[in-house]
Design a protein that fits this description.
The chain has seven helices and 16 strands. This is UDP-N-acetylenolpyruvoylglucosamine reductase.
Length: 293
């Protein structure tokens, strides 16, 4: 079926090996593209054969079902990782890890990207979710996004057309594939100061959240104006609560940790308990930030 695709195709690939939570069953086909042409070829085949297609970046912020994914998984986070600066604009492919961008820009003395050091994801994922850290969002420096639409055509939309809101964008829920994004890199600063602020952003996240653990990151959306899920969940006394191999972190209550043998079902049950308990005690409905696959 994928004979004309130059990238390697693996059948029955276990998705828990490429997700940060470390859960999830197998997909039918797993492909790591390194070019736009490869992405387009796979997309065309899936469209023609009516095969479901899932695109992942860093494998964070997603919870893959224990039964896996019946279709094709394109792992752009392993192959689409080139970026360059031209005329004060950073052009970055969808698979580039955003912390890598933050530190590269700091070395260049270009300000505005410091917050990205605290986002454990890729350019594509950061755009889809309008990811942010330290009260700053991807939208603050984004200029435009180039993507493959659901009809297989390459399109470019400006920032103003992308419906960027808190942890949401035009792309959320649509069958488009982000190929690259352009960011404003025109703000120059003192190189030492920019690097210091970039390291501080990374350190703040390390100090505030669990590190070196298997997790999706923030479980529920935490808008800047509140209410903050971590505080609410902590006040219910659920910190450290565990179902199977999934545990509410004792460091930050809005994070669920895979203690070794967690299943997606364990995580979902734990999320349900967190939502129901907070709703019962505070009358507040927690909205998941994690995407269910």
């Amino acid at each position: 079926m994928f004979n004309d695709v130059s990238a390697a195709v693996t059948e029955g690939f276990l998705l828990k090996t490429v997700t940060t939570m470390g859960v999830g069953g197998p997909c039918d086909y797993y492909i790591v593209p390194s070019t736009i042409e490869e992405i387009k070829s796979v997309s065309d085949i899936c469209s023609e054969k009516e095969i479901p297609l899932l695109v992942i970046g860093n494998g964070s912020n997603i919870l893959v079902d224990d039964s896996g994914f019946r279709g094709v998984v394109l792992h752009v986070g392993k192959g689409m990782r080139k970026f360059q600066i031209e005329n004060n604009v950073l052009q970055a492919e969808a698979g580039v890890p955003v912390p890598r961008i933050a530190f590269h820009m700091a070395k260049e003395g270009r300000a505005g990207f410091e917050f990205m050091a605290g986002i454990p994801g890729t350019v594509g994922g950061a755009v889809v979710m309008n990811a942010g850290c330290l009260n700053k969002e991807t939208s603050s420096i984004l200029q435009s996004v180039t993507y493959l639409d659901s009809d297989g055509k390459v399109q470019t939309k400006s920032k103003e057309e992308l419906e960027l809101r808190f942890r949401s964008s035009y792309f959320l829920g649509r069958h488009h594939i982000i190929l690259s994004a352009a960011f404003d890199a025109s703000t120059l600063g003192d190189t030492e100061e920019v690097m210091r602020n970039t390291k501080a952003a990374a350190d703040i996240r390390k100090g505030k959240f669990p590190i070196n653990v298997a997790t999706v990151g923030s479980t529920f959306k935490s808008p800047p104006e509140g209410p903050h899920p971590g505080r609410l969940i902590e006040e219910t006394g659920l910190k450290g609560y565990r179902i199977g191999g999934a545990e509410i972190s004792s460091v930050h209550a809005n994070w669920i940790i895979n203690k070794g043998e967690a299943t997606a079902d364990d995580v979902k049950k734990l999320m349900e308990i967190m939502q129901n308990t907070v709703a019962k005690q505070f009358g507040i409905e927690l909205e998941p930030e994690v995407l269910f696959i």
